Amino acid sequence: MPQNNTITPVQAGTLDGLFYERTMCSADDVAYIQYNKQKKQDKNKTWEKTTWNEMAILVGQWQKAISTENLDSGDRVAILMKNCKEWIAVDQAALGLGLVVVPLYLEDRPDNITYILKDAAVKLLVIQDISQWGRLRESCTDSEILKRVILVDASSDKLENETNQVTSAQQWLPKPGPVLHKRSGKATELATIVYTSGTTGKPKGVMLSHHNILSIAAPSAEGLKIKDNDLFLSFLPMSHTFERSLGYYLTIMVGCRVAFARSIQTLADDLITIKPTLLISVPRIYERVYSKIESTLLKGSPIKRALFKLTIQIGWNRFLYQQKRSRICLSCFLWPLLKRIVADKVMQKFGGSLRLAATGGAAIPFPVAKTFIGLGLTLIQGYGLTETSPVATFNRIDNNDPRSIGHPLEGIELKVGDNDELLIKSPGVMMGYWNNHAATAQAIDSEGWFHSGDQARIDDKTGHVYITGRLKDILIMSNGEKISPTDIENTIVIDPLFEQALLLGEGQAYLGAVLVLNSEEWVHIAQQNKLDPFNKENLQNKAVRKQIVRHLRTVLHDYPGYAKIRKVILALDPWTVDNDILTPTLKVKRPEVLKLFEKEVETLYS
Predict the structure, then answer these.
(1) Are residues 466 and 506 part of one domain?
(2) I want to staple 350 with a disulfide (CB 3.0 to 4.6 A). Which of 187, 354, 372, 473 is the partner?
(3) Is beta strand 407-408 parallel, antiparallel or unpaired with respect to 413-416?
(4) Exposed, middle or buried: residue 157 (CB in 10 Å: 0-12, 13-18, 19+)?
(5) Same structural domain, 86 and 97
(6) Which of 316, 345, 376 is the last residue of a domain?
(7) CATH number, domain with residue 554
(8) Do the domain assignments include residue 150?
């Protein structure tokens, strides 16, 4: 049963109904905590608190302003902003008027954003500042569909040369005071169109209803045992459905507080300042911390390395005992001492109050998960897709196998279909793809099963679900061996030497890899080989490549012989969203990497 303070999907009805109910029952409680750079000189005021009642007033302002734009129910409103209370105000104001919200990634390429604006026929765009608008102005000013562009962080005097289409929120919003609008919407209505990453082509618009999202947020809150006194630190983009559903709508449902991190660059400082109890992240964040720990240990004394490894192993043994998968071992009695002198010092980097960390969006490498669990962190891995709103499964706190994606949420059915594909039947399964009936029919069969594209197995005894591969990403070598590149790539990038990796070998006799090296580690390698690290031609040096291949043998020692990498292509320039090699959700576009290194790949296998 939900906590007394939790709002059920039935009580909420819609996502805007959920917000309205929360403002009614928790009016004076703190809802959001946000950094105010205008008051950075006063440390006591830099992090400002906003109550639910104050949020209701802010949403009312936006609702009043949007209602003057002559938009019809179902029209699309796009948000291109950083995580902040204004993002939520725009979202709730639009939903409360029966409009459909299209979230956009701040770091996305202008051509991708323009495509989405046109494909979704967006009429109102709310954007962060004039620099963001500058990237889009040329492709958007001649749009016959886009009627209004609102800049949140821009004064009206900076927009003197803009058309009447563009205005500042400062000038456009009415004075505080309008009453929050409450409507009688239907749960089955379209609430949002979320565009997928598009690793192999143009992104597709996933249509999610109010019911889709509410039906997933409720069992997620219950299963993860989220409490109304929890403090959540929000740093994944709100345009990411994982963050939006669990870090935004779920927190409203339960009534806990949310603090918005200033940026990824300041995340380490914000964790210490905010001291969150809850954290939701993609694996890359944990991998980076893990790599930093490994790099620090390599530079430290053998005693420190041994002590850290002992802590992890004993912490892991203790975890297995708590999960009732092993007997208590005598060494576990050393845990209180090791916790105090080793584990607590690492956990202080997360603020010292973290009781639960969830990870999703991609598989977390087992060594990374084992390390953090061994340090005493309750780390829960889940699984889902934008098309499933987004959660389909997650591990439970008292039944946690970090190698698996856990068990299905309450009300969700799973089965393994042809080619071991994981099929999902859930109230969170999307309404379909926007303007793409063919893709919808391909993804959802006649019996209502959503085809995930992921291969899986379900353990008959424990019920745990394990992802074993990806249908479209499988490499088939010339000897017939089938390899899932994702696992190997994830194992490579947790090593401090590597920033990014892409596995090669389709139709070939052996595996190769394109590797982006850590620039600091590259300097050490170059110096060891008496080479100039600033001359990129030295990345082609045979001795360097052989050294990297030898190092990979150690990194991949747990993989079978046919999965060993024999040749490498080395690079220093990172793959980013701006150079169109990463999607906004930081997934690698394999075709783009292969195109970029086309000549090198040909040489590698010539």
Answers:
(1) no
(2) 354
(3) unpaired
(4) exposed
(5) yes
(6) 376
(7) 3.30.300.30
(8) yes
10-residue mean pLDDT profile of the chain (606 residues): values are 77 97 96 86 80 96 95 98 98 98 92 93 96 90 88 82 89 86 92 82 91 98 95 95 96 98 93 96 88 89 96 97 92 95 95 96 90 97 96 97 97 96 98 96 96 95 93 78 84 94 91 96 95 94 96 88 89 93 88 94 91
CATH number of the structural domain spanning residue 402: 2.30.38.10
CA distance linking residue 131 with residue 116, whole number of Å: 19
Total domains present in the chain:
4
Residues 6+ apart with CB under 8 A from 396: 223, 380, 406, 407
pLDDT tens digits, one per residue of 192-223: 999 987 655 678 999 999 999 999 999 999 99
Q: For residues 405 and 395, give the distance between their C-alpha atoms in angstroms, rounded to a whole number.
A: 6
Domain membership flag for residue 277: no
Same domain, 412 and 530: no
Q: Which residues contact 353 (CB under 8 A, 6 or more apart)?
A: 231, 275, 276, 277
Structure tokens at 558: 């747990």
User: Across-strand partners of 457?
Assistant: 466
Question: What is the DSSP code string of 311-363?
Answer: HHHHHHHHHHHHTTSS---GGGGGHHHHIIIIIHHHHGGGTS---EEEE-SSP
Main-chain phi, psi angles of 300, to 5 degrees: -90, -175
Containing domain of residue 348, as a range?
A: 282-376
Residue 80 belongs to some domain of the structure = yes
Instruction: Give the Cα separation of 69 and 86 in Å (integer).
Output: 19
Tell me how far apart the terminal alpha carbons of the chain are, to the nearest angstrom.
63
Tokens 């939790």 -> residue = 6
* Stated pTM of the model: 0.87
Residues 464, 529, single domain; the answer is no
Among 472, 495, 529, give the residue marking a domain's end: 472
Q: What is the pLDDT, as a whole number, of residue 161?
A: 77
Pair type for strands 76-80 and 122-127:
parallel
CA distance 225 to 114: 40
The answer to whether residue 372 is domain-embedded is: yes
In this structure, the answer to whether residues 400 and 539 fall within a common structural domain is: no
Buried b (16+ CB within 10 A) or exposed e, 96-110: bbbbbbbbbbbebbb
pLDDT in tens, 476-512: 787 777 787 888 998 999 999 999 999 999 888 889 9
Q: Which residues are CB-contacts of 114 (< 8 A; sequence separation ≥ 6)?
A: 136, 139, 140
CATH number of the structural domain spanning residue 86: 3.40.50.12780
CB-side neighbour CA atoms (13 Å) of 342:
26
Same domain as 445, residue 337: no
**Averaged pLDDT score across all residues of the chain:** 92
What is the DSSP-derived secondary structure letter of residue 494?
Answer: T
Are 307 and 362 members of one domain?
Answer: yes
